[in-house]
Amino acid sequence: MHPHPDExxxxxxxxxxxxxxxxxxxxxxxEAVYRYMFYRTGDTMVAEDLTAEVxxxxxxxxxxxxxxxxxxxxxxxxIARARLADYWRYAKRRxxxxxxxxxxxxxxxxxxxxxxxxxxxxxxxxxxYLTPAExxxxxxxxxxxxxxxxxxxxxxxxxxxxxxxxxRALKKLRGxxxxxxxxxxxxxxx
Length: 190
What we know:
Blueprint: H1 7-15, H2 19-41, H3 44-61, H4 72-90, H5 102-106, H6 114-127, H7 132-143, H8 148-155, H9 159-186
């Protein structure tokens, strides 16, 4: 996720309570925050609620935001991580990370062929085998479009460590998918 091209001036205005500046920041980041929440919870309504909570927190604390080496996007995703942690801590259902439901798969554009649909479903299934830390870096990198540097700021690490975590998680995913494909071929499922 790249910063808004006019982010510095928007932040100055937003800290002064300028509604159009706040709205522009919201529009720029809302989709990435929602995707992060959705892939972490697997529930559209929960993801919408948590996304709303993130931006409500942003509104109440924007006056305290200062760019001390942590870009606004990273600061916003720190809020998102905190809201998500609160959700899991207080949720009545303590299920392990769910992935999108079949109806959500149908909403994804570009999956016209059954093979492509199957491959996407296999990927979503494979994500369940990642550790929470691996899942987080994969979702921040590919689900929300953050760079390794931005992820490092969100998870309070360094870019090289994040790059390594992403590489290892992708290698693990590749292995899981290959084993599943071999199994499916042996069983005559593909």
